[in-house]
Each structure stands twice: as structure tokens, then as C-alpha cells.
From TrEMBL:
Transmembrane segments: none annotated. The lineage of its organism: Bacteria, Pseudomonadati, Pseudomonadota, Gammaproteobacteria, Pseudomonadales. Belongs to the UPF0125 (RnfH) family. This is UPF0125 protein L9059_17315. It comes from the Bacteria. InterPro entries: Mopterin_synth/thiamin_S_b (IPR016155), RnfH (IPR005346), RnfH_sf (IPR037021). It comes from Pseudomonas violetae.
Length: 104
């Protein structure tokens, strides 16, 4: 008896390159397990798959260990942020305010 498979995509963008992995897996696997089986760890050995944030179609999955993958999912592996975006905006605004006060 042939088991039905589902097709999903796993994507990861490193600083210097990006890859899309088309994966056929049996239904009932979690998102984290699909990522593990995708082969992304072999292409990006520096990636810690156990701790990377994961999303589906741009929305972070809060619990990838329990969320089941569905046919057609685009599973995205996110890199850690190098800087907090709120802090960067705050510093930029402070710098602009300082520049304006010097020009007056």
C-alpha cells in the first residue's frame, strides 16, 4: 500500500545565499520535523534548527514542535535579529533630533 505524501517548501535565506527545498513528507509530521528532514542542515551547518524561529507564509509559528505541516505550506526559517528594530528606530530618531537642534 502506497502512503499519501504531502508537498511543502522549506526556505532559508542566509546573508550570502538563499535556498528553497521542495520536500515530500508523510502527513502528520510537525513543522520542526519537516524542517529537520528537508536537508537544510546539510546546506547550512551553522544553523541551529532546534532554536531557530520558524514561520509559515510570513507568520511566526509559536510552537513548531506541535504544529502539523499541511500540504502546500511554505515553511520559513528565520535568522536571529542582529539588532532590535525598535532600538534602531529610537537611535535614528535621537540622532535626527540632535542634528536638527545643531542646525537651528
Amino acid at each position: 500500500m502506497v502512503k499519501a505524501m504531502i508537498d511543502v517548501e522549506v526556505v532559508y535565506a542566509a546573508v550570502d545565499r538563499q535556498m528553497l527545498f521542495g520536500v515530500s513528507v508523510p502527513p502528520g509530521l510537525t513543522v520542526r520535523e519537516v524542517v529537520r528532514r528537508s536537508g537544510v542542515a546539510e546546506e547550512f551547518p551553522e544553523l541551529n534548527l532546534a532554536e531557530c524561529p520558524i514561520g509559515i507564509f510570513g507568520k511566526v509559528v509559536s510552537d513548531p514542535q506541535s504544529r502539523l505541516a499541511r500540504a502546500g505550506d511554505r515553511i520559513e526559517i528565520y535568522r536571529p535579529l542582529l539588532a532590535d528594530p525598535k532600538e534602531v528606530r529610537r537611535l535614528r530618531a535621537a540622532k535626527a533630533a540632535e542634528a536638527r537642534s545643531r542646525n537651528q
